[in-house]
């Protein structure tokens, strides 16, 4: 299945920057840089698709995207380029969400699963009011990654929405305050979609490693560099770890298999002495 451009946020960001530089003569010096970024990113995406399709080790595309993100962060911080390549335009921050979309969607095609994706204005919460005038309040949110196995129509609407099975929030770094805010987002999602899973993907972390996170509604925190922020700042080394991306994919596949597995009758589970996870 071809990639859906509506979920390719970073590529769209670059194309808009190129168009802007083509229209504005004062931005002409930025045009070659933006075009090189687009060419490099397209090469990374092609490499990723070929790697997944041929079941080859994920290290080359993961290393390439890690180095690419570091280049973009320099563009966002250098005096001569930071006005155009601005972090507030979600420039470097849009790379990993698109990388995950391409990785997972390619994997779903290979495995034969029909998966649906949404990013902008994803439905994350439904509140049934009991009022005839407005029976359902729908909460939308721009989600870095949202995937489901089905679509549904909202009441009094012809528009389909993806029923979320997997929601992923992507961050450069996460501290305890951000973590608490994202935990609330996970709670809201699961009130309406109790079978959904909410994952956090971050480059580094900035909180105590001794803290217990078992009470969170966030189902897993994946740390791409396997480092704290202070460790990364001291060394400025450590590319993204390909096995972390593989763990994300394995978690998603495991959840799909659980959803698709036939539910046995309670009488069939009774001999095991446990009913929920028998």
How are the SSEs placed, and which strands pair?
Blueprint: H1 9-23, H2 31-53, H3 59-77, H4 95-111, E1 116-118, E2 122-128, E3 136-141, E4 145-148, E5 151-153, E6 160-162, E7 166-175, H5 176-192, E8 197-206, E9 220-228, H6 229-235, H7 242-260, H8 266-269
Parallel strand pairs: 7-8, 8-9
Antiparallel strand pairs: 1-4, 2-3, 4-7, 5-6
Please state how the strands of the largest beta sheet are arranged side by side.
Answer: 1-4-7-8-9
As a percent range, the share of helical residues equals 40-55%
Number of strands: 9
Would you identify the regions where 5 or more consecutive residues have pLDDT less than 50? none
Biggest sheet character: 5 strands, mixed
With helices defined by DSSP (H or I, 4 residues minimum), what is the helix count? 8
Describe the structure.
The structure is a single chain. By secondary structure, the chain is of the alpha/beta class. It is built from eight helices and nine strands. It has helices at 9-23, 31-53, 59-77, 95-111, 176-192, 229-235, 242-260, 266-269, and strands at 116-118, 122-128, 136-141, 145-148, 151-153, 160-162, 166-175, 197-206, 220-228. Helix 1 (9-23) packs antiparallel against helix 2 (31-53). The two termini are 36 Å apart.
């Amino acid at each position: 299945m071809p990639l859906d451009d509506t979920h390719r946020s970073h590529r769209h960001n670059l194309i808009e920057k190129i168009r802007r530089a083509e229209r504005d003569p004062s931005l002409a010096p930025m045009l070659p840089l933006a075009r090189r970024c687009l060419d490099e990113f397209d090469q990374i995406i092609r490499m990723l698709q070929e790697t997944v399709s041929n079941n080859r080790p994920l290290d080359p595309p993961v290393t390439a995207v890690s180095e690419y993100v570091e280049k973009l962060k320099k563009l966002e911080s250098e005096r001569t380029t930071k006005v155009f390549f601005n972090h507030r335009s979600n420039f470097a921050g849009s790379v990993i969400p698109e990388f995950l979309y391409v990785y997972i969607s390619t994997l779903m095609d290979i495995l034969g699963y029909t998966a649906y994706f949404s990013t902008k204005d994803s439905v994350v919460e439904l509140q049934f009011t009991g009022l005839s005038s407005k029976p359902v309040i729908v909460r939308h949110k721009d989600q870095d990654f949202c995937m489901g196995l089905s679509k549904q129509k909202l009441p009094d609407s012809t528009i389909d929405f993806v029923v979320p099975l997997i929601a992923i929030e992507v961050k450069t770094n996460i501290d305890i305050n951000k973590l608490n805010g994202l935990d609330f987002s996970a709670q809201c999602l699961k009130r309406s979609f109790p079978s959904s899973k909410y994952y956090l993907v971050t480059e580094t972390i900035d909180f105590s490693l001794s803290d217990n996170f078992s009470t969170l509604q966030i189902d897993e925190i994946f740390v791409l560099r396997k480092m704290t922020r202070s460790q990364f700042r001291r060394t400025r080394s450590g590319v993204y770890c390909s096995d972390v991306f593989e763990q994300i994919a394995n978690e998603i596949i495991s959840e799909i298999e659980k959803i698709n597995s036939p539910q046995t009758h309670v009488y069939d589970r009774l001999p095991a002495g446990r009913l929920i996870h028998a």
